[in-house]
Amino acid sequence: MSLTEAQEVFASVHEDALNDLITAFCTDRPRYLVYGSPSFVPVTTVSATAIPAIPFPGVPGGINWRIVLGIPQIDLFDQDNALPPELSMGPGQFSGQIEVELCIDCRRLQIDPKDPRPFDPRRGHKPSDDRPRDPDRDERDHPLSELTCFKLRVFLLGHLQRVIAMGGEDAVALVVDQVEIVDIEPDGLESFLECLLFMVLQAALAEIRLPLRALRAGAFQLIPVVGPLIEDDQIKMRGNV
User: pTM of the predicted model, to two decimals?
Assistant: First the structure.
């Protein structure tokens, strides 16, 4: 059977070329990998995307946080790169590895010493109401502001989906199906972080839309009919011109 099957044209992209394309996309548009709330990213720029702080009662301005994603490294089926035993790549899938850094702006809150409830003579004043604060002691216990970060290597499985890119042209997007973080204890913390990063990576990687104009047959533009398919370490498309 011919490569084109019932269509006129066959085109493919090897995983090495796909990773080169993803690297070029992310390098040119780093805002797709860096997200931060106002203390980190006041406004969206070409370098980073502004996101809201996490609201919490008693924390002025909310809890500020930042997430920085590395450039994903994609392995198309057949599997070449090692995966944790919890993940198994099948036909039509890709696997990936990505480094993730999570940061939080840990601040000392200034608490009003006055009782927020109306004064009641029967209660009197609490001893703590009149005790002076010791700012030197507070600073020793915890700094007024401290950036706290940690990094994780995340493994993932996914598939490709045809989507529409900016300008209305056909493109492919990376769809995340499953994530795995290795060796974090307790198990509940690992599950929590995997759930958080599963949602984050689904949203972030779906924004990396790779135009199908990269698939050409000589001087002709491929009009996709079948695909994108993942086989033999390649993305394969069949269509007409």
Answer: 0.78
